[in-house]
């Protein structure tokens, strides 16, 4: 069973070939690279780039939540491919905790709107037993 066969539930391990799989399931997939994130500013910049936001993005937790839950700005079926997320969580546990709360709140709230938001962790050195 593939990840897109089921309703999104938390942060899940990205499937093999997530880009091709998402295209087949008509899920818009956006990549957010956490490999160069070292503080909140660089995190917000990574989100800005990954979500293709404009420079007027507020770069704070509320603005990120609003972007992820805005039905006019996001497709009904959206996947965030969180690249190098496990290492980011290890390097910055407090910052990643704040980010996870925002993403999980957004995931829950878009579900109530009849939409879907998958949060997929893709690791650079994928160990099948690491997640």
From TrEMBL:
Residues 29-120 form the Barstar (barnase inhibitor) domain. Belongs to the barstar family. This is Nuclease inhibitor. The lineage of its organism: Bacteria, Thermotogati, Deinococcota, Deinococci, Deinococcales.
């Amino acid at each position: 069973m593939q990840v897109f066969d089921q309703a999104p539930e938390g942060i899940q391990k990205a499937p093999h070939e997530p880009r091709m799989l998402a295209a087949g399931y008509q899920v818009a997939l956006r990549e957010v690279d956490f490999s160069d994130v070292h503080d909140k500013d660089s995190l917000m910049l990574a989100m800005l780039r990954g979500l293709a936001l404009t420079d007027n993005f507020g770069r704070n937790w509320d603005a990120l939540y609003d972007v992820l839950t805005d039905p006019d700005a996001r497709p009904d079926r959206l996947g965030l491919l969180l690249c190098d997320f496990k290492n980011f969580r290890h390097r910055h546990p407090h910052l990643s905790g704040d980010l996870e709360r925002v993403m999980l709140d957004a995931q829950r709230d878009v579900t109530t709107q009849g939409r879907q938001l998958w949060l997929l962790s893709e690791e650079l050195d994928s160990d099948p037993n690491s997640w």
